Amino acid sequence: MHKIRQHLIQYRTRLYATFGRSMVIALLAIIVTTALLVSSLMFFFGNAPPTSISMASGPKDSSYYRNALRYQELLAKHGVRVHVVETDGSIDNLHRLVQPNSKIDVGFVQSNLPLEMDVSKLMSLGSISNQPLFVFYRGKPKTFLADFSGRRLFIGPEGSGSRFLSESLLKIAGVANTQTPVTEALKTPEEAADALLKGEIDALFMMSESTPSGLIKKLYSAPDIHLFSFEQADAYIRNTKYLNKINVPAGVFDLKLNVPSQDTVLLAPSVELIAHPTLHPAISDLLLDAAKTIHGRGGRLRHAGEFPALQEHAFQISPDATRYFESGKGYLYATFPFWLASWINRLLAVILPVLLLLIPALKLLPSMYRWRFEFRINRWYGQLQPLELGIFQQPLNAAKRDELLGSLNQIEHGINRIKVPTAFASRLYALREHIHFVRQYLLDRDLIG
Question: The pTM is what?
Fold first, then answer.
């Protein structure tokens, strides 16, 4: 206990030597320093990129789901775990993203969906691919969608992007009453494909978002099944403003069997990578890096380097995506491993603002510190100086001298209560000597009367 008390006394002595006996300033300095330290630590740890995110994909075996697994693999190399959530497709993904307490960070969303919900807070990281609509049908070749009037059509599962697009295009073409008891009984693309092969329905509309790739291959390889070519593609694009035309060369799917047997034109909305507004910028960069790897290569239905692309549709473009497409990843993330770049970036984000505050403060504090103690001394000089001038400018009698001596005693009493650091002691001693000089002068001066 004795040692602790000695340490406390030493600490108090140091505080007095620095701040005088004003504990308010000492405590204020401690509080401000502690607040800066705590807020910096909270920012440092609170602004760290998450180590896991959730991605809304699509049904298992669909292109959405397969791509989500590739994102999962690529982000895992940087220590970020991607939880792939199986969904019913684009519309389901959009509903999950806009939920108030959404646990989905990012998802694949078709660009032409009905926006009946508030999507103003969602951010697009850009378009990552085109999503072609495949129309497989039986019977003689058809040129126009209007040729499907009165036919038994399966236009996609309820709530899927393919169903919404199919209904939109058929409506433009003037085709009504597409649903029949036969097609309404079909619930999945697999069931619909079997029904088409058996002749139970006449046509099947499907997109890769909700269709296994093997099923599409099975259909375009089947005899007597044709892939519809949109000869009026340009007209549909002008009417919708969200579709893209894809030219499919003959034999691109199978050169040996020459599938398709002739050049075919498909229509496709784009697929966007839509993010929740809370997505961390560093994770956004990782996702776009992965998108370049996954979607940047050429394929049967796209050119190399075509995607990802910064195309604005119904969703606002993320500022982080804009920065990425304009200048790429930041220097730190392009140079160092993800975890190290994240650590350095947050450290700089903490240090730089603190330095911006501390540098002016460090320049100002000595002046304020000096002014504080000089003011304590100078205010007594302010009282002593008029008193001294009065002594020299007027005759003195015994009563007046006693009055002036009393004023000097009051000034001296006030000075004796001043506590200043050692650095200002010389000025305090000079003030006392000045008072002594004035007092001695009063005592030695001749009196009148």
Answer: 0.64
